[in-house]
Amino acid sequence: MSLPEGKNLWVESLSETDAAGMSQSHFHDYYEIYYLLEGKRRYFINHTLYDITANDIILVNKGDIHLAQSSTPAGKYARCLITFSDQFLNNLGSEFDKDFLIKIFDIKKIHIPESMQNTFNMLLHKAETKIKQDNIYSQYIAKLNILELLVNINKFSTKNNTPLMDDLTVYEDRIQEVCRYICNYYNKPISLNEMAKIAYMSPTYFSKKFKRVTGFGFNEYLNNVRIKMATSLLMETQSSITEIATFCGYQDSNYFGDVFKKIIGISPNKYRKEHYIL
């Protein structure tokens, strides 16, 4: 679910089977809180795997490459998704510390303790109901509900930071190491054959395992990592499109433009015009 156009906050619940869940990897310029109400899911964020169960929260920061996928074949699950932009935080006013509210997004996975679950569910239900009512009073109530959720998550997150998965198989651990390598060296020449060697697998086997573990095709993941960096450079530097393409690992600026448009939806030039930070 994306943040609806013209909105700086949205809340939406959904119940479905894994077969109908998120199948397209992506990153975006807003925050996302994924609260699993029931079932089991696996989340891949940047270069790390997270298995989640009921009352777990996944915190997706701006720019995080992520994908939710099946944990069990054709399993049913229910989740609530909260998305909000920097504008939502800015509108809260100077008395609220934005950095304090968003520091939880560095944690990635949190389990909501039993003592907080009823309160959490009540606030989410109220926020989802009010955010969909087209009047200013309901909108204010929804925003206050979400603000209370953020404060409560911060309150217990330091005591309740869930450790990363500690039961990865050998091939899952190797794939995760390859992803870390790509995130660190995306600007270098990287090929599937080279990464297969790092993972001690044949290229064919590596390709299949990479897709199964992360939910991404190998080239899809590599391009997402590189284009994510390109968006930052387009916003924050005056480097030319060719220079940015080269820095991000693309030797052909035309090919870079094609990949950029496929992932982002617009050309690098148009993206810079719309997002450049003076």
Quick summary of this structure?
With 278 residues, the protein is an alpha+beta fold. The chain has helices at residues 86-90, 98-102, 114-131, 136-157, 170-185, 192-198, 203-214, 218-236, 241-247, 253-264, 268-275, and strands spanning 9-17, 31-38, 40-45, 48-53, 56-60, 66-70, 76-84, 109-111. It has 11 helices and 8 strands.
H/E series: EEEEEEEHHEHHHHHHHHH
Total separate domains: 2
Distance between the termini: 30 Å
Number of strands: 8
Q: Which fold does the CATH topology of the largest domain refer to?
A: Jelly Rolls
Write down the Rg.
Answer: 20 Å
Strand order of the largest sheet: 1-7-2-5-8
Could you tell me the mean pLDDT?
Answer: 88
Task: Give me some keywords for this one.
Jelly Rolls; 278 residues; 11 helices; alpha+beta; Arc Repressor Mutant, subunit A; 3-stranded antiparallel β-sheet; 2 domains
What does this structure look like?
The protein is of the alpha+beta class and 278 residues long. Strand 3 and strand 4 form a beta hairpin. The strands form 2 sheets. It has a 5-stranded antiparallel sheet with strand order 1-7-2-5-8. It folds into 2 domains: 149 residues, Jelly Rolls (Sandwich), CATH 2.60.120; 106 residues, Arc Repressor Mutant, subunit A (Orthogonal Bundle), CATH 1.10.10. The protein is globular, with a radius of gyration of 20 Å. Helix 5 packs across helix 7.
